Amino acid sequence: MDAPVYARPAISLIAKGLGPHKSDLYIGGSDGARDLDLLKRHGISVVVNCAINLDINWVREADIDGGGNLRPSGYADIRYYKLGLIDGEGSPDTMMLGAYYILDGALRQAMPKRETYPFADGGNVLVNCRGGRSRSVSLVALFLHKQQPELFPTLDAAVAHIREHRELRPDEWFETPKPMLYNAARRASEWIDMIAGKTSGQD
Predict the structure, then answer these.
(1) Predicted structure pTM score
(2) What's the mean pLDDT when you consider all of the chain?
(3) Which distant-in-sequence residues (6+ apart) come within 8 Å of 76 by Cβ?
(4) What gap in Å lies between CA 114 and CA 106, rounded to an integer?
(5) pLDDT tens per residue, range 135-149
């Protein structure tokens, strides 16, 4: 049984001042991620797309115009990272671990000062999936818990914060996020501690 689909903002501010560039972190769905004017108004220059079933083309001037079997390619106004998680069963838990480090890298990268990297350092970050209710919630909750443990000592605390700021209502909490993605985030949390040489506590 699916929860009712409620109206909520296309993007929602979740956290401020993250990483070395002091970036703000947003969660949104496909409508927010596709709205270039909306992204620009919020200073979002980085998008981390969690969804395997959603592709977005931001190429502004194609280096290759396409034709035949070739698709257009080139630079975009957005630095774009694509994760490819399934909204339900099917993704190995290790993909959530990889997603954590990709989001961390997106916040920390320093761009080379070369013509082939026409991007500024920093900028605010949007994490999106199709609805901004499950895949992106799981990843951002994991990220906040590991990066700001003083504010979010457990994964549950991070999810509660996101549910409030993303305007996720109690009757949809059973799938925001979906249990298998929540469990993947818990496993990833333990692995992150192991990689860092820490003993993982109870999340």
Answers:
(1) 0.91
(2) 91
(3) 58, 59, 60
(4) 18
(5) 999 999 999 999 999
